[in-house]
């Protein structure tokens, strides 16, 4: 294939990578800012040029063919190389500047990142921060992100992962609720209590506990569930029931006596806890703005976790 034909295929290669990583033509079209039919035409054009099927299309989804998987791996390397080229051009000598795109979970953004973001902006006045707040993992390649924060024990293998500290899950209730309903002394006692949980996924009401080698799984229930940590905390403060939170959400409320910790001797395993991991694409040429952000957040968050 001559250079002119290859150059013409680069946008289609980028579209193909986005479709594979997004999981559907519709999701890819949203990321690329074009119509699903437009994305479909790009994939068809690439398949015609390569004389092979890359995707098996059904009414609901598409599956990458064996050949498509190989083409995807090479296409991804092309996109990563293009990103390196852009980074070379955007590397600044000395002062960090330009746009930085970051994604992070909602509660973590509100309670931990927000003040650090504002301090970073003050420290680096020529950097523009674009924060995408989402509790779902956001693909950095498809959304053109520089940094992704996640609470997890299993960082993404295709990203550089920098652990920044451990977040524990905490059970809390108001003093009035515990006085009226009794204090749980074992996780199984929670079956007799009104428990507040996230209710985003089917197993969010399944709480796992362990202590001294004893593992307990409890399927809790309650009259009120909400996927907003501050609303859930307000309900707990009002005496509605026992709630589960990342420790940074309830730190102040515990310190001021608005809530009391429940089952403090038990370790809680849930989606509310894990390593704070800062993840970013591997790159030989990192822009100064990204390096400055990584260094600043690493120092700030590791310092907080050690306090």
Automatic annotation (TrEMBL):
Record-linked SUPFAM superfamilies: Periplasmic binding protein-like II (SSF53850), Winged helix' DNA-binding domain (SSF46785)
Domain HTH lysR-type: 1-65
Superkingdom of this protein's organism: Bacteria
UniProt entry keywords in alphabetical sequence: DNA-binding, Transcription, Transcription regulation
Record keyword Nucleotide-binding present: no
GO biological process assignments: DNA-templated transcription
This protein's record includes keyword Transcription regulation: yes
GO molecular function: DNA-binding transcription factor activity; sequence-specific DNA binding
Similarity remark: Belongs to the LysR transcriptional regulatory family.
Designated name of the protein: HTH-type transcriptional regulator DmlR
Species for this entry: Vibrio thalassae
């Amino acid at each position: 294939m001559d250079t002119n034909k290859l150059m013409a295929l680069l946008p289609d290669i980028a579209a193909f990578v986005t479709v594979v990583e997004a999981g559907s033509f519709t999701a890819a079209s949203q990321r690329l800012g074009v119509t699903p039919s437009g994305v479909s035409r790009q994939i068809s054009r690439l398949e015609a040029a390569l004389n092979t099927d890359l995707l098996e299309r059904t009414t609901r989804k598409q599956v990458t063919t064996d050949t498509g998987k190989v083409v995807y791996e090479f296409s991804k390397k092309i996109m990563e190389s293009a990103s390196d080229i852009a980074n070379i051009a955007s590397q600044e000598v000395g002062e960090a500047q330009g746009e930085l795109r970051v994604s992070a979970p909602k509660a973590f953004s509100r309670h931990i990142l927000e003040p650090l973001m504002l301090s970073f902006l003050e420290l680096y006045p020529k950097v523009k921060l674009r924060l995408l707040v989402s509790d779902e993992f956001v693909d950095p390649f498809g959304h053109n992100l520089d940094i992704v924060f996640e609470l997890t024990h299993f960082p993404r293998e295709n990203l550089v992962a920098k652990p920044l500290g451990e977040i524990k899950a905490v059970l809390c209730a108001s003093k009035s609720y515990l006085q009226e309903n009794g204090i749980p002394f074992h996780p199984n006692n929670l079956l007799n209590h009104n428990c507040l949980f996230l209710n985003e996924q089917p197993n969010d009401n399944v709480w796992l506990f362990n202590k001294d080698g004893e593992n307990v799984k409890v399927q809790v229930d309650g009259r009120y569930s909400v996927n907003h940590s501050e609303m859930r905390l307000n309900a707990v403060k009002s005496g509605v029931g026992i709630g589960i939170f990342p420790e940074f959400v309830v730190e102040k409320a515990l310190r001021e006596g608005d809530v009391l910790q429940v089952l403090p001797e038990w370790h809680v395993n849930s989606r509310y806890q894990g390593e704070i991991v800062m993840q970013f694409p591997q790159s030989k040429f990192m822009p100064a703005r990204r390096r400055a952000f990584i260094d600043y957040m690493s120092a700030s968050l590791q310092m907080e976790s050690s306090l």
